[in-house]
Amino acid sequence: MILPITVYGNPVLRKVCTEIKKDDEGIQELIQNMFETMYAADGVGLAAPQIDRAIRLFVMDASPMAEDDPSLEGFKRVFINAKIISEEGKEWSFNEGCLSIPGIREDVIRPEKIHIQYYDENFEFHDEFLEGIKARIVQHEYDHIDGILFTDKIAPIRKRLIKGKLTAMSKGKVDADYKIKFPRKKMA
Question: 23 — phi, psi (to 5°)?
């Protein structure tokens, strides 16, 4: 089932998410729905807060980027209760976007390598070292489960330049080619 993607301004995008327990119900169905939602929106990653769930879960499939980087072919993962152990290497800039912030792309500087531990959809433990685009996608999605958005990491001048667009988005003035969930209105 394709779920609506939560848009900038919704408080769930700023929450530090809670861990998932192995016996939590509905996780397998949620993972399938997240992949379906991500594919329908032409994304390569999707975190649970982006579908209005404050849990430590994100999915990714970097295969659509394999034309530019063949190592990404078949790089599809589910990350449950992920923990980045370290980030290292040369910092590099890459133009990022986010399904929760439609229509805005900015250059973000991140370290090139990460060491991450996580559980997959079968609750099997993984301890991996990733680099390049793989590491970047994971860092971007991992930020989501810690309540951080890519716009938090851009240069101050760029933040000022997009502030009006973000404010409008938080008030529900946003357009996307996929199903979205507008920010919650504050009760008077």
Answer: -95, 10
Q: Phi first, then psi: what are they for 152, rounded to 5°?
A: -70, -20
Tell me the per-residue pLDDT of 53-91, one tens digit each, with 9 for 90 and over. 999 999 999 999 999 889 999 999 999 999 999 999 999
> How is the chain split into domains, by residue range?
5-175
Phi, psi at 110, each rounded to 5° = -140, 155
Q: With the CA atoms of 22, 23, 26 and 27 taken in that order, what torsion angle do they form, in degrees rounded to the nearest 10?
A: 0
Please identify which residue in the block is written with the tokens 């861990």: 19
Q: Does domain 5-175 have CATH number 3.40.50.300?
A: no
DSSP letter for 151, please.
Answer: G
The answer to whether the CB of 147 falls within 8 A of the CB of 108 is: no
pTM above 0.90, yes or no: yes
- Residue 8, SS3 per DSSP: coil
d(CA 71, CA 85): 23
Residues marked active site are found at 141
Q: What is 78-97 written as a DSSP string?
A: EEEEEEEEEEEEEEEEEEEE
* pLDDT confidence tier of residue 124, bands split at 50, 70 and 90: very high
What pLDDT shows up at residue 187? Answer: 44
Taking only the tens place, the pLDDT of each residue in 88-116 is 999 999 999 999 999 999 999 999 999 99
Enumerate the H helices of the chain as residue ranges: 27-40, 132-145, 156-170
